[in-house]
Amino acid sequence: MIRSEIGPITRFPDYKRLVSWTGLAPSVHQSGNVEYHGRITKQGSRMLRFAMVEAARVAVNHDDRLRTFYLRIRERRGEQKAVVATANKMLKIIWTMLTRRETYSSANQRRYEKKPLCRL
Q: What is the DSSP letter of 112?
């Protein structure tokens, strides 16, 4: 579903454009040298944003790297912002995977390896 919503990944020259297009980028308000980051912009694909947030909720339970990121943000900012930040991070990872044509290498790689057959 994510791939069908994004379309060809070549549309986005860097991950920042994809995150912004999805609406998961924080809004920025500037005045001179002062820069404030606000809520997410919510511009772009509503369905993709929903899918990424729900995927982030599941991923924090199964991926150690994303879980530590989520817990660090949750401690400072709260649960909802931590989930959105994790969805943002996952979208960056997805952009990298699609542009480099790589598979995801989780910190917990053993979970995805083929298990040997048990012989009785």
A: G
* Residues 70, 86 contacting (CB under 8 angstroms): yes
Is a pLDDT exceeding 90 seen at residue 36?
Answer: no
Provide the angle, in degrees to the nearest 10, between the axes of the packed helices 64-77 and 46-62: 110
Single-letter code of the amino acid located at 118 = C
- DSSP H helices, 63-107, are 64-77, 79-100
Burial of 48 (0-12, 13-18, 19+ CB in 10 A): buried
CB neighbour burial string for 84-117, b if at least 16 within 10 angstroms, e if fewer: bbbbbbbbbbbbeebeeeeeeeeeeeeeeeeeee
- Give the pLDDT confidence of 22-31 residue by residue, as tens digits: 988 888 888 8
87, 59 in Cβ contact below 8 A?
no
Burial class (CB in 10 A: 0-12, 13-18, 19+), 44: middle
Cα distance between the two ends of the chain: 41
